[in-house]
Design brief:
Bound molecules: flavin-adenine dinucleotide
Strand order of the largest sheet: 1-2-3-4-5
Shape: globular
Distance between the termini: 71 Å
Number of helices: 14
Helix content: 25-40%
Strand content: 25-35%
Largest sheet: 5 strands, mixed, barrel
Number of strands: 24
Radius of gyration: 23 Å
Length: about 475
């Protein structure tokens, strides 16, 4: 039987499910095809939510480990962690949220078609795994099939000892040792989780610094903090081979000085990035233009085939890498649904996408780094304010880190805000709004920041850009 819709979305991740809800809100008859047993995609099932739940456990453990400093009396035996309980709580959070999306589908009268979809033309979709059926989209098909972990040459993922984040979130024992390949957001978040739980953690990063997409000052601060916590980092280092056996992994690494080193760990976590998911979709069959496996779209997320658009981790807009982030996929989903419903939409400004990394200390950043601003020809001036001076940071016992503002000297325009330290992933929201509103540094200075808060560091960093921080 052929089922008729205005919009058919393939994939119920943060791109697809949000696009579907917005389309339904705008009166479009909408269906979502999802091959997993639960809605929410990578973010809810294997990504943002489970990792941040584990990080909250790591944070709770940190407080308990420092009980004495807080005047807490919690018995004389060493504080431990029960991984079964940790996993059970994390799973409850994930299930609660996926059920929440199911509820929203019902509320908005969105049909969830369970199965795997294939494109059959500019308006046709076939479900070839699951309940076999065909669907027709009278307005548009939105492809939101996301991404999956990928490895690097010489390292074969066996999902037992050489694992990805998909397996790492389910580990029921704390590994004695873990090597982590890659120091992007996923790599450093797991480094923080496992180190806090008690593992020996070694990071191998090909580029010269940790979190290479961040401002250089942030990378340096994280490296310092990780070293203090006992995390070993090898930067400018290349993993050339890995051999797994029943109880561990042997890893060959070429260090920065060119010397070869062999490492042994209980697990090797490969966190070297994610590639697009288009298997079985028959994207090429319907003539979609592809670039390195990604679906090529324009600034309105239209593919080259009329009637088919694509959003989220599976797309490229050409040019520099498209950010693979949940909130980016959702923003693209909303714009696409609104365009399909006939609204006028404006392209996203990818310079205004906030990035949050929930390692310890956490990182929040938005806009241009100092190096990027210089390479774009701005006459740059920066202001930095350390969290260590703030009353609120001292109360929390978390004084590492800073806020750094990158601005343009000529017009006083705010170009980027970079922070590392307590609550940075929340504080970045103010910086994002300021960039969105094209604020000047002067406007941030005149914005009153409540006392005592971590946000005072933003106001102070703005003062510092003008050479006039009050508390330094
Ligand atoms: C460990 C980890 C931590 C992360 N943490 C964060 C974070 O803190 N913040 C953040 O912003 N981002 C984070 N991300 C990234 C974020 O999860 C992704 O950017 C986001 O999920 C992308 O959404 P999407 O809708 O494009 O794709 P996905 O979420 O990957 O969803 C795609 C969906 O499509 C389905 N699908 C694929 N092919 C088909 C088909 N043919 N038929 C039917 N269904 C299909 C899949 O089953 C999947 O459910 C993290 C990722 C990982 C791996």
């Amino acid at each position: 039987m052929d089922h008729q819709y205005d919009v058919i979305v393939i994939g119920a991740g943060t791109g697809g499910y949000v696009a579907a809800i917005r389309a339904a809100q705008l009166g479009l008859k909408t269906a979502v095809v999802e091959k997993q047993q639960a809605l929410g995609g990578t973010c809810l099932l294997w990504g943002c939510i489970p990792t941040k739940a584990l990080l909250e456990h790591a944070h709770a453990l940190k407080i308990a480990q420092h009980a004495k400093d807080w005047g807490l009396t919690i018995g004389s035996s060493a504080v431990g962690i029960d991984m079964n309980q940790v996993q059970a709580r994390k799973d409850r959070i994930v299930t609660g949220l996926t059920k929440g999306v199911e509820f929203l589908f019902k509320k908005n009268k969105i049909d969830w078609i369970k199965g795997t979809a294939r494109l059959t033309g500019r308006s046709g979709v076939e479900i070839f795994e699951g309940e076999k059926q065909t669907l027709t989209a009278h307005k548009e098909i939105i492809v939101a099939t996301g991404s999956a972990p990928r490895s690097v040459p010489g390292i074969e993922i066996d999902r037992k000892r050489i694992i990805t984040s998909d397996e790492a979130i389910h580990l029921r024992d704390v590994p004695k040792s873990i090597a982590i390949l890659g120091s992007g957001a996923v790599g450093v978040e797991f480094a923080s989780i496992f180190r806090r739980f008690g593992s020996d953690v070694t990071i191998i990063e090909l580029l010269p610094r940790l979190v290479p997409v961040e401002d250089e000052a942030v990378s340096a601060e994280l490296e310092k903090a990780f070293k203090k916590q006992g995390i070993t980092s090898h930067t400018s280092a290349k993993a050339t081979g890995a051999r797994a056996n029943a109880d561990g992994v042997e890893l060959d690494v070429q260090l920065a000085d060119g010397k070869a080193k062999q490492l042994r760990a209980d697990y090797l976590l490969v966190a070297t990035g994610r590639g697009p998911v288009t298997t079985g979709l028959d994207a090429e069959g319907v003539g979609l233009q592809m670039e390195k496996g990604y679906i090529k779209v324009d600034a309105q997320y239209k593919t080259n085939v009329p009637g088919i658009s694509a959003i989220g981790d599976v797309i490229t807009l050409g040019g520099p890498g498209h950010p693979q982030l949940a909130h980016v996929s959702s923003a693209e989903g909303i714009i696409t649904a609104e365009r399909i419903a006939g609204q006028e939409v404006r392209p996203l400004n990818y310079d205004h996408v906030p990035g949050c990394t929930y390692c310890d200390p956490e990182i929040g950043s938005v806009g241009l780094s100092e190096a990027e601003a210089k390479s774009r020809g701005y006459d740059v001036r920066v202001g930095t304010f350390p969290f260590g001076v703030l009353g609120r940071a001292k109360m929390a016992g978390e004084t590492e880190g800073f806020v750094k503002i990158v601005a343009d000297k000529k017009y006083d325009e705010l170009l980027g805000v970079h922070m590392i330290g307590l609550r940075s992933t929340e504080l970045v929201a103010e910086a994002t709004a300021a960039l969105r509103l094209e604020s000047t540094v002067e406007e941030l200075i005149r914005t009153i920041h409540a006392h005592p808060t971590m946000a005072e560091a933003i106001g102070e960093a703005a003062h510092a850009v003008h050479g006039a921080a009050i508390h330094l």
